[in-house]
Amino acid sequence: SPIIEIDHLSKRYAAGTEALRDVTLNIEEGEILALLGPNGAGKTTLISIICGLVVPTDGTVRVGGHDIRTDWRAARRLIGLVPQEIALEPFEKVERSVAFTRGLYGLPPDPAWLERVLRSLALWDKRDSITKELSGGMKRRVLIAKALAHRPRVLFLDEPTAGVDVALRREMWEVVRGLRAEGVTVILTTHYLEEAEEMADRVGVISRGRLMLVRPTAELMGEFGRKQ
Ligand code: ADP
Ligand code: ADP
């Protein structure tokens, strides 16, 4: 069965904004799904609900079969979230920062895992650098390593390339494809069709709180008459 089941989900904020309207979507284990839409479409709201940070007005979400409202702890354990904002301790070393997050989950140190994750994110050579010395792209990769610290099965990336230049965007695309190779299910948000095409197996288009369509990337590229 799907790793994430979203059923008739709606969100109306206190101010009256209908941020999500009747969204239904299943996400399969191991896939990379891009949520594509303009600013204000509802992408962050959708991710925030699945991660248990925002309470929906209507509908249900299950993660690994666990209802996020009644079984939040079990659901949350399966999820890693990389938020848009980069928040790192500036003087903390990379390796220490990731190890610390693992400790927050009450998990014992695992040097072999730590080395593997830092290598896979091209951070191994920077393990003894303090985070304030890193480039924007490297900082984002540290956030990914921290989000993976409890070995979640699903990773959410909220606009992973916001505010980074073209070269770093391509680097991030590589990182995401690498995560797929590790078997992690990835859900990311983006404003760019090109980015969705490069990274995702499937693209969901969100507009004004509605999920307008969900298509395999190859099909979408055909519809828009692009490379194939
Ligand atoms: P995004 O970059 O995803 O469009 P925004 O810049 O719109 O995000 O929002 C930044 C933060 O402010 C988010 O945490 C969002 O939940 C919150 N926010 C956005 N719009 C409002 C609003 N109208 N009232 C209160 N908080 C808001
Ligand atoms: P996106 O991530 O696609 O930019 P968001 O989910 O951030 O979209 O926002 C969807 C809509 O909900 C926007 O109109 C935004 O202003 C509004 N919104 C987001 N967060 C809040 C909030 N905390 N309070 C009120 N309105 C919000």
From TrEMBL:
Residue span, ABC transporter domain: 4-228
Keyword Transport: yes
GO terms of molecular function: ATP binding; ATP hydrolysis activity
DNA repair is among the record's keywords: no
UniProt KW keywords: ATP-binding, Nucleotide-binding, Transport
Domain of life of the organism encoding this protein: Bacteria
Protein name, UniProt field: ABC transporter ATP-binding protein
Classification lineage: Bacteria, Pseudomonadati, Pseudomonadota, Alphaproteobacteria, Rhodobacterales
